[in-house]
Inverse folding.
């Protein structure tokens, strides 16, 4: 039986710009994935609890407020703490180049900034999530 | 596997979530696990909530769940959204309206795609209801996809079915039509702050007058403004009243039997279809029959007879 890739698309923090997250969510949907969209203003705890209940393979975080070094890392740490270390984490939004290596070190596997093609995100996830 | 089931029965979220995924994917592990789950089911009150898209089902569920929590009840929620017939993907967005519940450990929410099933549900929903029931949830709420007129499968699974309508979707003829408007145990006119609500309530009430005149129990018609939490107390009272009614009239057992029948049919259907369409021996046969049908050498009924005669011996 076919197994579907399940992705949680979440917006941590306080910025209200969800257009990018919605476009990515739609692109993943069109690539045959099941996308759980939770809306704005999520805390790290909420995101991780949702990831557990929805049994997702991927958590996608979108953030444009500049708090990514705190919030992305919080989510990554909490996922690991709750035993979800095998969940793929990807991020997007306005993330300065110099922060990307630091985020990767903390467990965020890829950062997709403005101008990224949705196809590239789809391919990355498909490749990384073991069937 | 035994370990997984015992963790589910203890209410471990990760194990519950994992077993649901296995059931959704028709994994043989889930089939085995469900055999051990079944004896632990039967105590949850299963509430089905259906209505057109945008009628406020998710918001209403959020409010209702918060009230159940105040009464000390634990709640499992299955929120179903449509799977794309083109890509097989789905955007499951019901959680957006249930954010207040995200950190409550007495609430477990699972979003599901329909995965090809019509009727407003998804084929593994029976398993998921049993899993949430067995792990100790007092209430299990099933939210259907946004329905049109004919998606009525929710009555097969729910003890109590709520049909949500909103003002402004047509005249009294719409309420007289067959299908969704026949299945309610309770009608909820949501978004009651909108204009036209009196008319909608009156139309649904007159529908009830026509259909329930001979029956003992008259289907209640309530109005709510889910977004402001208005009317939820009364709704919960009516739901409990309906449950008491089911228990008093022995309808409860009948309803459950109906659910098991639907589940049994679903399992047999699934297995038969897999058997016929996934087995290589049948594949060739089907291909050749399709050729013959296309060339008008044979009709589809005769072709079906030929396939079925191989298994119905």
């Amino acid at each position: 039986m076919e197994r579907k890739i399940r992705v949680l698309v979440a917006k941590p923090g306080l910025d209200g710009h969800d257009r990018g997250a919605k476009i990515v969510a739609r692109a993943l949907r069109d690539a045959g994935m099941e996308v759980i969209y939770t809306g704005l203003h999520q805390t790290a705890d909420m995101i991780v609890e949702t990831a557990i209940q929805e049994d997702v393979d991927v958590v996608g975080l979108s953030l444009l407020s500049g708090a990514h070094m705190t919030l992305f890392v919080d989510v990554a740490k909490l996922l690991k703490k709750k035993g979800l270390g095998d969940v793929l984490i990807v991020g997007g939004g306005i993330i300065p180049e110099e922060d990307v290596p630091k985020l990767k070190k903390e467990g965020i596997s890829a950062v997709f900034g403005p101008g990224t093609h949705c196809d590239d995100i789809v391919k990355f996830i498909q490749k990384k999530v073991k069937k | 596997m035994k370990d997984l089931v015992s963790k589910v029965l203890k209410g471990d979220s990760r194990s519950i979530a994992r077993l649901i995924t296995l059931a959704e994917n028709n994994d043989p592990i889930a089939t085995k696990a469900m055999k051990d789950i079944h004896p632990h089911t039967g105590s949850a009150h299963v509430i089905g909530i259906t209505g057109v898209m945008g009628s406020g089902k998710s918001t209403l569920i959020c409010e209702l769940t918060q009230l159940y929590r105040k009464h000390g009840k634990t709640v499992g929620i299955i929120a179903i959204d449509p799977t794309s017939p083109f890509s097989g993907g789905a955007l499951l967005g019901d959680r957006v309206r249930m954010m207040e519940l995200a950190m409550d450990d007495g609430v477990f929410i699972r979003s599901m795609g329909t995965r090809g099933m019509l009727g407003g549900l998804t084929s593994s929903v029976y398993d998921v209801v049993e899993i949430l029931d067995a792990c100790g949830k007092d209430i299990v709420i099933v939210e259907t996809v946004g329905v049109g007129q004919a998606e009525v499968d929710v009555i097969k699974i729910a003890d109590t079915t709520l049909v949500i309508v909103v003002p402004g979707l047509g005249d009294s003829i719409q309420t007289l039509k067959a299908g969704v408007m026949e299945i309610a145990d309770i009608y909820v006119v949501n978004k009651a702050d909108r204009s036209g609500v009196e008319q909608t309530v009156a139309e649904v009430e007159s529908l009830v007058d026509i259909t329930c005149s001979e029956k003992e129990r008259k289907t209640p018609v309530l109005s709510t403004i889910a977004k402001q939490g208005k009317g939820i107390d009364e709704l919960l009272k009516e739901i409990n009243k309906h449950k008491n009614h089911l228990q008093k009239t022995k309808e409860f057992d009948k309803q459950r039997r109906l659910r098991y029948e639907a589940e049994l049919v679903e399992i047999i259907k699934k297995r038969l279809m897999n058997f016929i369409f996934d087995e290589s021996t049948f594949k060739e046969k089907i291909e050749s029959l399709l050729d013959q049908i296309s060339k008008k050498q044979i009709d589809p009924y005769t072709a079906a007879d030929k396939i079925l005669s191989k298994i119905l011996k």
About this structure: Chain B has three domains: 1-40, 41-249, 265-311. The domain at 41-249 of chain B is CATH 3.40.50.300 (Rossmann fold).
